[in-house]
Amino acid sequence: MYQVDVVTQGYPGKSPSHGGLGWSTVALLRGHGETILVDTGWHGLRDVLVRQLDKFGVKRDEVTGVALSHCHWDHICNFPLFPRAYLYFPRIELAWALSQLANRLDPAPGSLHVPEFHLESLAESPRLRVLDGGDEFLPGLSALAAPGHTPGHLVYVARSKRGSFIFTGDAVKNQAELMTEQADWSLDPEESRRTIRAVRTLAAADPANVVVLGHDRLVSIERGGLVARTPLAASVSARLTTDFDDETVFDVAQHSGVRGAHAEG
Question: Does 245 reside within a domain?
Answer without folding.
Answer: no
